[in-house]
Design brief:
The chain has helices spanning about 10-15, 25-30, 40-50, 55-70, 75, 80-95, 100-115, 120-130. By secondary structure, it is mostly helical. The longest helix has 16 residues, at about 55-70.
Length: about 130
């Protein structure tokens, strides 16, 4: 990758199917948090549904990061309507897939949207990071 904190979609796809490790610490949080980037979210969802991808669970973790970025402060400040709309679109797209991992993410995300006060950072980021990698 030429710029690990601003990778192209092609570089992300190549990394997903490689044996490479994370390029940098916190790379996932810096790169994969923007629900408003339709191209990036479509790419993440596409790879997260591919059972042949060696990093499939890692890309489900990236979906968790997107959820966390939208929900994290909603209990205190309310939702950013644009972000919430994009997240709901991503959930709808995920529900059309046949991947149990992605459908589980969609169900968990719908629950946390309804009850943002239940959001716990460590449950969506820290524990998932270790399990996903």
């Amino acid at each position: 990758m030429q710029d690990v904190f601003n990778p192209t979609n092609q570089e992300i796809r190549e990394w997903a199917y490689s044996n490479g490790s994370y390029p940098e610490e916190d790379w996932d949080i810096v790169v994969f948090h923007d629900v408003t980037d339709d191209g990036l979210t479509a790419l993440i969802l596409d790879i997260a549904t591919d059972k042949n991808c060696p990093k499939q669970k890692t890309f489900v973790h990236f979906l968790d990061i997107i959820t966390g970025a939208v929900v994290r402060y909603a209990a205190e400040k309310g939702y950013n309507e644009e972000e919430l709309k994009k997240l709901n679109t991503l959930i709808a797209d995920a529900e059309k897939k046949s991947s149990p991992l992605v459908i589980d993410w969609a169900n968990r995300t719908k629950q946390i949207i309804q009850f943002p006060e239940r959001f716990r950072y460590k449950d969506w980021f820290l524990e998932k990071t270790t399990a996903a990698l």
